[in-house]
From TrEMBL:
Protein name: 2-isopropylmalate synthase
Subunit structure: Homodimer.
Example GO biological process: L-leucine biosynthetic process
Cofactor(s) annotated in UniProt: Mn(2+)
Reactions catalysed according to its record: 3-methyl-2-oxobutanoate + acetyl-CoA + H2O = (2S)-2-isopropylmalate + CoA + H(+)
Protein function: Catalyzes the condensation of the acetyl group of acetyl-CoA with 3-methyl-2-oxobutanoate (2-ketoisovalerate) to form 3-carboxy-3-hydroxy-4-methylpentanoate (2-isopropylmalate).
GO molecular function, one term: manganese ion binding
Domain of life: Bacteria
First-tier enzyme category under EC: transferase
Lineage: Bacteria, Bacillati, Bacillota, Bacilli, Bacillales
GO cellular component term of the entry, any: cytoplasm
Enzyme Commission code: 2.3.3.13
Gene name of the record: leuA
Record organism: Cerasibacillus terrae
Length: 385
């Protein structure tokens, strides 16, 4: 089994979802949960893009200690300087530098020749290396780039100091076979590639982001990037929860492990949905409301006889509690306290009182208080500080 790193970009690429705008307190709350989930690195913003994002990145960098914190930067010195100011107090900071490498992006967006793009990439990686020891370098629109050009620029940025090479499918255009072939080509044609971590980053425009990410891993990628609930630009990023659970459930087929605590998945999904306002569709794999619901008589009958007839993932594995302590309008403070403990939260007496009151008023309106409802109450109580 080889260990695959998980790079979470919910708070950067995920936050680029139309209509989503998280403030620093909300970002920090999600960052704490991502730390609990056990991602290897979290990309939390683009400091040069706004003062608010700068402050959010800085605050997270100063708070999160167990997980590496990354921030995005264009290949310009002023962006790198701003990112350093935001990240310098992080325990394990990482700069994420990107520049486009496809003919269409170089000609129309950057208005640079391929030689100028190589020069800019090498110069900015070398400049960043004066401060950052960890530098992820991304070839934006890699999946529509010329493979020989990609191999040439990658070799040079590794020599300049990049420690992670990321090959994004920026526009969600590739297919599993094509994307996998690109990774194999880079593994076979870049002499210094084994010095770095090789990363994939997929968008879901054609609904293939998860399959493409897994194809990349099968062809040499050692890091997967994605977002919780698959949020992000346009159709979104690869759904991290789908990838890690697929690798786990089909470990007979995929010899890879990740460091994620799978039973923190549902809680993370709920928090991201609540704070971004991007609700999860009911039939979404792993985290949708119906992901474990069996409706037809034949299925229900089968599951009652043996769960494995129709259930390939247990709800408990991903943190969905189906038969845990039930709370309703007759539940008292003691049961409520136990439940909060069971859900993994520690609240002060004052916060507990506040949460209990919110719970009681909800039971006046709602017969059945679900774990999702309680989670929302607990998040409100923690965030309103
Ligand atoms: O999709 C993309 O190309 C990106 C880059 C900034 C890495 O998000
Ligand atoms: Zn992206």
């Amino acid at each position: 089994m080889s260990r695959i790193k998980i790079f979470d970009t919910t708070l950067r690429d995920g936050e680029q979802s139309p209509g989503v705008n998280l403030n620093a307190v909300e970002k920090l709350e999600i960052a704490r949960q991502l730390e609990r989930l056990g991602v290897d690195r979290m990309e939390v913003g683009f400091p040069a893009s706004s003062k608010g994002d700068f402050e959010a990145v800085k605050r997270i960098a100063e708070t999160i200690k167990e997980t590496s914190v990354a921030a995005l930067s264009r290949s310009v010195q002023s962006d790198i300087d701003t990112a350093w100011e935001a990240l310098k107090n992080a325990e394990d900071p990482c700069l994420h530098l990107f520049i486009a490498t496809s003919p269409i992006h170089m000609e129309y967006k950057l208005k640079k020749t391929p030689e100028e793009v190589i020069e800019t990439a090498v110069r900015t990686v070398s400049y960043a290396k004066e401060r950052f020891s960890e530098i992820e370098w991304s070839a934006e629109d890699a999946s529509r780039s010329d493979l020989n050009f990609l191999a040439e620029i990658i070799e040079k940025v590794i020599d300049a100091g990049a420690t992670v090479i990321n090959l994004p499918d920026t526009v969600g255009y590739t297919t599993p076979k094509e994307y996998g072939d690109m990774f194999r080509f880079i593994k076979e044609n870049v002499p210094n590639i084994d010095q770095v971590c090789l990363s994939c980053h997929c968008h879901d425009d054609l609904g293939m982001a998860v399959a493409n990410s897994i194809a990349a891993v099968e062809n040499g990628a050692t890091q997967i990037e994605g977002a919780i609930n698959g949020i992000g630009e346009r159709a979104g990023n690869a759904s991290l929860e789908e990838i890690v659970v697929a690798l786990k459930i089909r470990s007979d087929f995929y010899p890879y492990t990740t460091g994620l605590k799978l039973n923190e998945i549902k809680r993370t999904s709920n928090l991201v949905a609540k704070l971004t306002g991007m609700h999860v569709q009911a039939n979404k794999a792993i985290v949708g409301r119906n992901a474990f619901a069996h409706e037809s008589g034949i299925h229900q009958d089968g599951v009652l006889k043996n769960k494995e007839t129709y259930e390939i993932i247990t709800p408990e594995m991903v943190g969905v509690n189906v038969d845990n302590l039930y709370l309703g309008k007759h539940s008292g403070r003691h049961a409520f306290k136990e439940k909060v403990k069971e859900m993994g939260y520690k609240l002060s007496e004052e916060k507990l009182k506040e949460a209990f009151q919110a719970f009681k008023s909800l039971t006046d309106r709602k017969k059945e208080v679900t774990d999702d409802d309680l989670f929302t109450i607990l998040m409100d109580v923690q965030i309103d500080t």
